[in-house]
Structures are given as structure tokens and as C-alpha cells.
Inverse folding.
């Protein structure tokens, strides 16, 4: 029985043991079909919850259920007819609990798509995703030779697909896993129900440093999933509130959804939309309208490579992480293609520790080191940095020995240098790398800017 395998998976929380159980059943074709029909992101059954049914066990083997489920996937049965047919199918099934799991899209056994595909190859198709190639000057120049180009800010939040169907809204990760989020932006998405459209975008928390904000979003998704499954504990809620200083609901209502693409659901499923990007962008803008928590990504049309680089440098000065340049006539395709190029830099700088900041009140870092403040040798660049790990004990070591670390040179990794409205300079997403006991002097602002220019590929014109 398939339910016996599922119960065996449910009986352990250890990933290695779950993998071993999956391996043991690798040649079980029926189990593979159950996994496929449960986790395939391209299968939609059109029913939000399992209907009531006669719980007396029927005699239809699970193998025969799949043909019936195809009728739901292909929308041969919809609405009330689908509910009635599913109720009959559950009543007749020999393993109705397995069918319930398929409809719920979750075996409730702690397995996900990545775990399944580690054992069964590419059994579960991944969620379609159009990515960006890394920056290449030659490809960028070709883009401007052959097409009209738009440059857009790289949001770099938590990537989320909003799948808006004729009966509900689903939020999915790049890997196709449900993103359990609520809050105002989700309420606004529900206003678009019946559109049968998919939005590509990222969830961000304005006003909170990117890495911290993404950590909050991931924690909220995890805790909401546990709440949905009835396993969330008061202790976990209290830990979240102590770490971040406020409630889950508070942060959910701060979240915004930044959108950069839209396409019909049918095109999304098949991983290809032939509509030009300029048209898809207009569709997204019209759909979003006056939403307050759903916004179109910032961008501007650029006519030359130099104009794109000027926009990129302006974005860095404003504290943005990077820019993406895109062909306005390109189609949407699953994969990474040269019609989308990511402009982003990563540079290492050697800077001097000039002060220490205590962690925020009511968080786990209250009373210890929250972040470091570093500066260039001439003091023209000053910035707070994060990235200190707890497990190596360095956070406590620095906090308890500030006199020894004040003035020390450390290597900091960042995504560029920004300029504030007062003319001062700081780092974009600065993170601690290592203490440099072999260095006695930090880099100057001029040296830091030169490193940025080299990373941008602008020093040789």
C-alpha cells in the first residue's frame, strides 16, 4: 500500500532516513506516480479543499485514480461538477488518504521537490523560471546593436511567482514550493482572481537591510507553513519576536511585492510566452494599477551601453544592489538567455574598524555585538557591516575585547559603494569576511572607488 510508504516517511524527521526510504521505493512505479501527481507544479486540480465523501473504503486501486485526475488537470470537469466527481472518486478509492494528499499537493511527510529529484532524477518538473545571464560586456553591446533595451533595478528580495487562477492565488518559490505569506500585498493579489495570469516578482521589506529582510521573510514563510499544518509552537513565535523585535503580522504588513513580468497562466505552464516584453510589462502595469503593496519594478529605457552603465552607477549611489538590462522585444522563456543580463558587482575592500554597535533591543543580539562600523583610511567612507557568524564565537570575542579590535583592519565584501544625499560614502550590503592581522592601514576612498571601477570594467574605457 502506498500509504504505508508515506507513513514510514512521516515517522522520521531525519533527511538521510527519508532519502533512504525514497531509495528503497525507487522502482515502485505507482509511488512515483503519486509523487508526480502530488508535486508537479504544472498540475492544477481546481479544487481548494477536499470535499466530504463516504469514508468506507472503496475498491478502486490508486493506479486507476490517475486517469480520473487528468480530467481535472485538463479542466474537463470544473466547478461544482469537479467537487461532486472528486467526492465520488474519494468514496470509491482503496486509498482515499493518498488521494487527499495529491489534491492538497503535499504528502505531509517532510519531503520536497529537491529531495524527490535527488532520488528519482528529474521526476518533478521545476517551476518555469526566466533568469538572467551574468554581465558580459560583449553581449551587452550586442543587445544595444540589435534591440531596444530597458534597464531595471535588481530588487534582490525573496523571489515569488504569484499564480492567479480563476479560483485562487498561489505563491510559489523558484523551485515550486508554496510560499506561506499573508499580509496586505496578498490581499491585493486576491483582487485579481479570475485573471488566470502569472506575475514574476520579489517580496521585499522596505527600510530593512536586504539580508536581514530576506531572513525575516524566510522565517515568516517557515512559521506560517507550520501554522498551516498545526505544528507551530508558542516558543517558536517568541523566538522570532525576540530575534526580530516584532510580530509575524507586523512584518507581513510591511512587505511589498515588486513585479517585473506577467504572462497568461497557460503560457507559463509550458515555459514559453511569445508576447514581447514591452507588452507584458504594460499588462503588469495595468493590472497593478493603484495597488499600494504591489509595485512595478523601477526602470528606464536606455539607448546606449554608456547610458545603461550611468544608470547602474546611479543605482549604486542610491543604495541599490544592481541593475538588469533586457530586450524589450524578447519573449518569455524558461531558462537563461542573452536577452537579459545582470549588472552586479562584488568587491573586497580592506577597511578599519572604528566603532561597535549593540544589537537592537528585544532581539537576540541585545547586549552583544550587532554590527561593526568601518571606515576608509581618510575617513571619507564610513559604513555599518553585518555578516558576523555566531558559531565561530567571533561576535562575542569582538564585543568583549573592543579595545583590541578598535582600529583593526578587516576585509569586507560588498556590492559596491553608494553616495548619500549629504555627500558621504558607504557600502552596499557590506559583510564581514576576515580580520587582516597582516595589514596596518585601510584603503582610501579613492582606492575603494578604483576597485569599484575595475569591477565595473570601466577603467579601460
Amino acid at each position: 500500500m502506498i500509504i504505508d510508504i508515506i507513513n514510514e516517511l512521516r515517522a522520521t524527521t531525519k533527511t538521510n532516513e527519508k532519502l533512504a526510504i525514497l531509495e528503497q521505493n525507487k522502482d515502485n512505479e505507482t509511488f512515483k506516480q503519486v509523487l508526480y501527481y502530488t508535486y508537479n507544479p504544472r498540475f492544477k486540480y481546481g479544487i481548494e479543499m477536499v470535499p466530504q465523501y463516504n469514508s468506507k473504503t472503496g475498491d478502486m486501486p490508486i493506479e486507476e485514480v490517475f486517469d480520473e485526475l487528468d480530467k481535472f488537470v485538463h479542466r474537463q470537469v470544473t466547478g461544482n461538477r469537479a467537487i461532486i466527481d472528486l467526492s465520488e472518486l474519494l468514496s470509491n478509492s482503496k486509498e482515499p488518504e493518498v488521494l487527499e494528499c495529491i489534491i492538497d499537493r503535499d504528502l505531509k511527510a517532510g519531503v520536497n521537490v529537491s529531495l524527490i529529484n535527488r532520488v528519482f532524477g528529474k521526476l518533478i518538473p521545476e517551476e518555469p523560471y526566466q533568469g538572467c545571464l551574468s554581465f558580459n560586456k560583449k553581449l551587452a553591446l550586442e543587445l544595444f546593436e540589435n534591440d531596444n533595451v530597458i534597464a531595471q533595478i535588481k530588487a534582490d528580495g525573496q523571489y515569488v511567482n504569484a499564480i492567479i487562477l480563476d479560483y485562487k492565488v498561489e505563491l510559489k518559490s523558484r523551485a515550486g514550493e508554496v510560499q506561506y505569506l499573508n499580509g496586505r500585498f496578498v490581499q491585493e493579489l486576491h483582487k485579481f482572481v479570475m485573471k488566470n495570469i502569472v506575475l514574476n516578482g520579489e517580496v521585499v521589506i522596505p527600510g530593512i537591510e536586504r539580508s536581514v529582510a530576506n531572513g525575516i521573510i524566510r522565517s515568516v514563510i517557515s512559521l506560517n507553513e507550520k501554522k498551516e499544518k498545526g505544528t507551530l509552537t508558542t516558543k517558536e513565535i517568541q523566538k522570532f519576536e525576540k530575534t526580530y523585535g516584532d510580530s509575524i503580522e507586523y512584518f507581513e504588513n510591511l512587505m511589498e511585492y515588486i513585479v517585473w513580468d506577467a504572462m497568461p497562466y497557460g503560457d507559463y505552464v509550458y515555459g514559453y510566452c511569445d508576447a514581447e516584453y514591452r507588452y507584458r510589462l504594460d499588462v503588469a502595469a495595468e493590472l497593478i494599477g493603484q495597488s499600494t503593496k504591489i509595485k512595478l519594478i523601477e526602470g528606464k529605457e536606455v539607448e546606449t551601453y554608456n547610458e545603461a552603465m550611468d544608470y547602474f552607477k546611479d543605482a549604486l549611489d542610491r543604495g541599490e544592489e544592481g541593475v538588469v538590462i533586457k530586450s524589450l522585444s524578447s519573449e518569455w522563456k524558461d531558462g537563461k538567455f542573452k536577452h537579459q543580463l545582470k549588472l552586479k558587482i562584488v568587491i573586497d575592500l580592506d577597511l578599519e574598524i572604528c566603532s561597535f554597535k549593540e544589537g537592537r533591543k528585544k532581539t537576540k543580539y541585545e547586549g552583544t555585538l550587532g554590527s561593526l562600523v568601518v571606515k576608509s583610511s581618510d575617513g571619507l567612507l564610513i559604513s555599518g557591516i553585518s555578516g558576523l557568524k555566531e558559531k565561530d564565537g567571533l561576535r562575542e570575542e569582538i564585543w568583549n575585547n573592543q579595545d583590541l579590535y578598535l582600529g583593526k583592519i578587516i576585509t569586507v565584501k560588498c556590492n559596491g559603494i553608494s553616495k548619500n544625499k549629504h555627500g558621504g560614502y558607504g557600502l552596499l550590503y557590506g559583510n564581514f569576511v576576515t580580520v587582516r592581522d597582516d595589514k596596518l592601514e585601510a584603503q582610501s576612498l579613492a582606492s575603494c572607488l578604483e576597485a569599484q571601477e575595475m569591477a565595473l570594467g570601466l577603467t579601460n574605457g
Notes: The mean pLDDT is 90.
